[in-house]
Amino acid sequence: MREQTVGASGLRVSRLGLGTSTWTTVDGAQSVLRRFLNAGGTLVDVNPDNEAIVGPVLSIADRSRLVISAGAGVNPALPLGRRVDCSRRSLMAHLDQTLNNLGTDYIDLWSVGYWDTRTPAAEVADTLDWAVRTGRVRYAGVRSYTAWQLAVAAAEAEIPLVAAQTEYSLLMRRAEEELIPAAQHLGVGVFAGAPLAQGVLTGKYRTNIPKDSRGASADRNAEVQGYLDARASIIVEALVTAAAGLKATPAAVAVAWAREKVTAVIVGARTPEQWDEIYTSEDLTVPRAIRAALDDISL
Q1: Domain of 14?
Q2: Which part of the chain is the NADP-dependent oxidoreductase domain (predicted)?
């Protein structure tokens, strides 16, 4: 698997990152991780909700081979309006908990999970600096920030921010407007989260909602429903047509398309078979004419 340097830093990551949000059992996830590592993958993105499972899974790997990316400052279990807390107290506590859950002494890339209107940007930046200077964290970044928020955070930080993670796919291209250009200007790498739009870009929701899919889950149905509209249907059909012409799967084409403008693409895989399908994107280049057609139809 090919590696990319992250922004203007020396951090190197596999351009296909492995997401952990769909992991539900240790044994199943370890099978996926083994396939990922055997393919040369290094970047593992940790979901805060899933750290209790992720820790035992990662124990099978040589820690020095992994680039663990984790976020802090957001607790989805809390009621709306109280989920974001990026105060120094909260971030420090979250970091200690993550290190404990994952059974590691350090996080390779630690990111503030969301812009907190109640915490001064200088306090957030100072906490990131502290985490790096104490050795608990190797590099710092942000998640779900807009372009102006990234610029403010970068200006406040004493150490460089190296990465900004954001949702980016054929169905969600907002990052192209300002965030990606701003990140390039600031020397910050961009990680694309949800490049398959919660599985919608695999094409499996074209006719119905499969029983074993996220759309069939009471907990995650809302994530999928947000993409199941008329615009999405048109884009998915175009993607399926493009994939047929390239003798590839829609998922592989969607990942290869997203990869062109970012440093790394974070893709979740619940089974080894899902990972194998995603991995086929590594050797896939979307021809210019097909890319232009997908660009036009997804604007």
Answers
A1: 3-196+261-284
A2: 15-285
In angstroms, the CA 270 to CA 226 distance is 21
Residue-wise pLDDT for 88-137, tens only, equals: 999 999 999 999 999 999 999 999 999 999 999 999 999 999 999 999 99
Q: What number of residues does the chain have?
A: 299
Burial class of 163 by CB neighbour count within 10 A (0 to 12, 13 to 18, 19+): buried
Bridge partner list, 166: 192
Query: Would residue 10 count as lying in a domain?
Result: yes
Q: Is residue 81 part of a domain?
A: yes
**Would you tell me how many other CB atoms lie within 10 Å of the CB of residue 64?**
5
Report the CATH number that the domain containing residue 66 is assigned in CATH.
Answer: 3.20.20.100
d(CA 162, CA 47): 19
Structural domains of the chain, count? 1
CA 34/CA 46 separation, integer angstroms: 16
What is the C-alpha radius of gyration for the chain, rounded to an integer number of angstroms? 18
The answer to whether position 33 is within a domain reads yes
Whole-structure pTM value: 0.92
Q: What is the DSSP string of 96-118?
A: HHHHHHHT-S-EEEEEE-S--TT
